[in-house]
Write a structure and sequence with these properties.
Elements (H helix, E strand, L loop, with lengths): L3 H10 L3 H16 L4 H10 L7 E5 L5 H8 L3 E5 L4 H11 L13 E3 L16 E8 L5 H12 L8 E7 L7 H11 L16 H8 L3 E9 L2 E3 L2 H9 L5 H6 L2 H12 L9 E3 L2 E8 L2
Parallel strand pairs: 1-2, 1-4, 2-3, 4-5
Antiparallel strand pairs: 5-9, 6-9, 7-8
């Protein structure tokens, strides 16, 4: 789920880039990010995250997962390499000294590599999270592999690494909407377009990163929206439709996604799509 493709598209077309990307980041923060709260909570519960934890979040987005860890007493740091607009929102949440109060000591939020979130005096992290779900974009695991390779040396030996991905398409109602992205995207595109999640996506990433799998789980994460407009804005904020927007145009994507959402609209106008997400706990060797 990265805004890179739309960022490139806007730079080519001249459409108000900073305004559009800023609005999309707010849509993610205000509408979409909360859909994954059950996933974050399940992982933190399983790993008993508390005041002794030192958490490094990879692809931390606008910081909700780190905020939840901090509310449990954990020291947190985050890396957001692809979306400075989301990172700015995370800083508002987690670095409140900007607004006259104090953040917990040691909180760091950086744009760049995991090493930028640590220095010689930083204790090893006890948990590394990669909560941005992989498995629905062709090529989505390559960037994660690079992040893991640079992050795991910062964690203590045996520390858990939590990876997240989409569940089986037949368990995810949103998959039928995401197929619009495949239909509209360039059929020759090898990366960036939607594909069904595969059973071993997470295990393959862990294996390539030299991590040892140590259990997994599935979590119900229904996507619920106040109306069709909120659903459209939330889903487009994920980045899963970026290739479709680049291959066609925003108006066409808006139209077809809205049509695909109609079966999930209830009588009161709300939109409800049951989904299952999967997580894998792996260990740093």
């Amino acid at each position: 789920m990265t805004p890179t493709l739309v960022r490139q598209h806007l730079s080519h077309t001249g459409e108000g880039s900073r305004t559009d990307l800023g609005a999309r980041a707010r849509d993610w923060s205000e509408i979409q990010e909360r859909m994954l709260v059950p996933l974050y909570e399940a992982v933190y519960e399983r790993l008993e995250v508390g005041p002794a934890a030192r958490v490094l979040g990879l692809g931390c987005g606008s910081g909700l997962a780190l905020l939840m860890a901090a509310s449990r007493g954990a020291a947190v740091a985050g890396v957001e390499p692809s979306c400075p607009e989301r990172l700015a929102l995370a800083r508002q949440r987690l670095l409140p000294e900007t607004y006259g109060t104090r953040a917990r000591a040691g909180t760091r939020l950086v744009e760049g590599a995991p090493g930028d979130a640590a220095d010689a005096g930083t204790p090893p992290y006890t948990l590394v999270t990669a909560f941005e779900p992989i498995g629905c974009l062709a090529g989505s695991s390559e960037g994660l592999g690079e992040l893991l390779a640079s992050a795991t040396p910062l964690a203590e030996r045996g520390a858990p690494v939590a990876l997240a991905g989409w569940g089986p398409p037949e368990r995810c109602a949103t998959s039928s909407v995401l197929r619009v992205a495949t239909k509209l995207a360039d059929p020759l595109r090898s990366t960036g377009s939607w594909r069904p999640a595969l059973r071993d996506d997470l295990e393959e990433v862990a294996q390539r990163a030299g991590l040892r799998p140590d259990g997994s789980g599935r979590v119900a994460c229904p996507f619920g929206y106040a109306d069709l407009d909120s659903a459209l804005r939330g889903l487009l904020s994920t980045g899963l439709f970026d290739a479709a927007i680049e291959a066609t145009d925003r108006a066409q994507v808006d139209k077809e996604v809205t049509e695909a959402l109609h079966p999930y609209q209830r009588r009161d106008g709300t939109v409800w799509m049951p989904n299952v997400f999967r997580y894998l706990i792996a260990r740093v060797p």
